[in-house]
Amino acid sequence: MAQVKRKVLIPVDGSEDSQGAFDFYIDNLMKKDDEVEILHIQHTPHLSVLSLHDPMNIPVEEWSHKLKDEVKKSQALIAHYEMLCEQKHLAKKSLLGSGKPGEAICEKAKECGADMIVMGSRGQNAVRRTFVGSVSDYVLHHAHIPITIVPRK
């Protein structure tokens, strides 16, 4: 009987936590037939505050430059993880999303048919976590597949 490939979704954001989660996957969970889905939720820059004195002067050019910078950062981040997958001879796909990270991760996991999610914890302090919550906490409570949350070392 042929073994079905396992799809592992690994959200990355350029932090040490997401790199740690990727490394944990490689060192402890990786199977040679896995397909790794590298997901980055791109930050969309906000428009600067509009002037009340000149409400028609929308800083579109400034926003466009910020957006291009974010796209370049996303491409570099994805390329980094693609290279790491290639070094381990892992099948990989790169996914880009936008929106609220927790919601986007759960949505992409469902869309791509992921079998599990491996992600870092943000290591937020107790006060911030209480009032804001965390992406990993959201995913833990809303994804319907196994999740490995890797704590900060």
UniProtKB/TrEMBL annotation:
Pfam families: Usp. Residues 6-151 form the UspA domain. SUPFAM superfamilies: Adenine nucleotide alpha hydrolases-like. It comes from the Eukaryota. CDD domains: USP_At3g01520-like. PANTHER family: USP DOMAIN-CONTAINING PROTEIN, USPA DOMAIN-CONTAINING PROTEIN. This is UspA domain-containing protein. The lineage of its organism: Eukaryota, Metazoa, Cnidaria, Hydrozoa, Hydroidolina.
